Backbone:
């Protein structure tokens, strides 16, 4: 019962961690995953989220086995 | 492959030639391409290097979706996106978008679309190294 959590770019550096697993028990939304993974309550406004490689909003649902990622606005090209 | 992520420097002209070899000769009358190259300046500072990070798996999927969207919107024959990751020096190509179509309008329009869409949607992040060795994450894209 786990959800894989990934952090990218400046967020990874700030947190000093790129990948971790959190217990999926009781987690219903992307926001819940953020809280458990970071021990902070609100996802900052400039942080984007994905679930299983698809962009998702903080209120959207998660389930056991998902890969949830958090990252800053993109700057490619 | 319509989507190519490169960890090493690439030659855009060679990438176009190689990809075009897989398209039936005579089927297209127009090829439009755009190459984004690393500048040695940004926001008033001299930039001497850059690191490009991506989200393996998600980035490739997003770039393929951008191409699929272009194919749905314009009558094009094929399209190619090549994007660098890793350490990049000024003057090196960062990105190539190319489109093949029967006529020029679709090629021009779809090529511009590919570039703008990938800049706003694809999970890439740039970190610049400035003269003196300090580093900073690029927080927003240039307007165009």
Residues:
């Amino acid at each position: 019962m786990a959800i894989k959590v990934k952090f990218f770019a400046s967020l990874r550096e700030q947190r000093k961690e790129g990948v971790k697993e959190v217990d999926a028990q009781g987690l219903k939304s992307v926001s819940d995953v953020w809280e458990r993974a970071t021990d902070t309550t609100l996802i900052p406004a400039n942080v984007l989220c994905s679930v299983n490689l698809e962009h998702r909003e903080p209120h959207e649902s998660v389930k056991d086995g998902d890969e949830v990622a958090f990252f800053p606005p993109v700057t490619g090209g | 492959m319509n989507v190519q992520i490169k960890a090493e420097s690439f030659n855009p002209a060679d990438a176009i030639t190689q990809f075009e070899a897989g398209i039936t000769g005579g089927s297209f009358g127009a090829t439009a391409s755009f190459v984004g190259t690393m500048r040695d300046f940004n926001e008033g500072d001299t930039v001497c290097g850059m690191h490009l990070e991506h989200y393996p798996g998600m980035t490739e999927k997003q770039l393929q979706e951008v191409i699929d969207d272009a194919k749905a919107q314009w009558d094009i024959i094929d399209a190619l996106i090549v994007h660098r990751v890793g350490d990049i020096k000024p003057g090196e190509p960062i990105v190539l978008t190319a489109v093949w179509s029967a006529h020029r309008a679709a090629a021009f329009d779809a090529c511009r679309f590919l570039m703008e869409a990938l800049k706003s949607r694809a999970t890439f992040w740039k970190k610049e190294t400035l003269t003196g060795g300090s580093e900073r994450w690029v927080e927003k894209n240039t307007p165009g």
